[in-house]
Automatic annotation (TrEMBL):
This is Adenylate kinase, putative. InterPro entries: Adenyl_kin_sub, Adenylat/UMP-CMP_kin, Adenylat_kinase_CS, ADK_active_lid_dom_sf, P-loop_NTPase. Belongs to the adenylate kinase family. It holds the Pfam family ADK. NCBIfam families: adk (TIGR01351).
């Protein structure tokens, strides 16, 4: 049976890298709420046009719109055949209740547990090369010495904004954990990515949800 997973983690938790590993090794369809939304807007689909109207006004996309978008993708033939990895969705309790009511099977909810101190350190050390767009970290992914002087700090990487994002994340995460309580697998994401992935694999196997298939690449 194909694997359906939800991954939950704050900005800076390594969620993106973990999703890439899972998508590659389990050959599941990686569905990122943010990316799907941008695609729909770019294609000017009915859902994309509806979402764009809210975005123009600086408003949050309604839960109903996000649920339609994700359920449409999660029930496509390829998704039903290979399984899905929902990233950045559900973000609210209402969204979680909606996918449960719609009958979308969820095998596990992966919650990345990271200390506030680690998140602040990861955010504070992040730098962007304005020429190439490459993202570096002064400690974890040091830039070449010849380009250090031209690197910039992203406006969103200030401590104040990071703390604000962390609070919003926790406020949204806690009701999701209660809703999916029997499906939650908590992974210590304060570790290096290889160890985070190894712990994820261990917990998944312990739950009887299988191991990676032969690598086939991302869908």
């Amino acid at each position: 049976m194909p694997l359906n997973l939800i991954i939950v983690g704050p900005p800076g938790s390594g969620k993106g890298t973990l999703c890439e590993n899972i998508s590659r090794d389990f050959h599941v369809m990686h569905l990122s709420g943010g990316e799907l939304l941008r695609e729909e807007v770019a294609k000017k689909t009915p859902l994309g046009s509806e979402a764009f109207e809210y975005m123009k006004q600086g408003k949050l996309i309604p839960d109903e719109t996000m649920v339609k978008l994700m359920l449409n993708k999660a029930t496509e033939p390829a998704a039903l055949q290979h399984g899905v990895l929902l990233d950045g969705f559900p973000r609210t309790l209402k969204q979680a209740q909606a996918i449960t009511a719609a009958g979308l099977r969820v095998d596990a909810v992966i919650v990345l547990d990271v200390s506030d101190a680690s998140l602040l350190e990861r955010s504070a050390g992040r730098r962007v090369d304005p020429v190439t767009g490459e993202v570096y970290h002064l400690k974890f992914k040091p830039p070449p010495s010849q380009i250090v002087d031209r690197l910039v700090i992203r406006p969103d990487d200030t401590e104040e904004k990071q703390r604000f994002r962390m609070k919003i994340y926790k406020d949204q995460r806690d009701p999701l954990i209660v809703h999916f309580k029997d499906l939650v697998l908590t992974v210590n994401a304060d570790q290096p990515i290889p160890k985070v992935y190894a712990e994820f694999l261990f917990l998944l196997k312990q739950r009887g949800l299988g191991e990676p298939t032969a690598p086939k690449g991302k869908l």
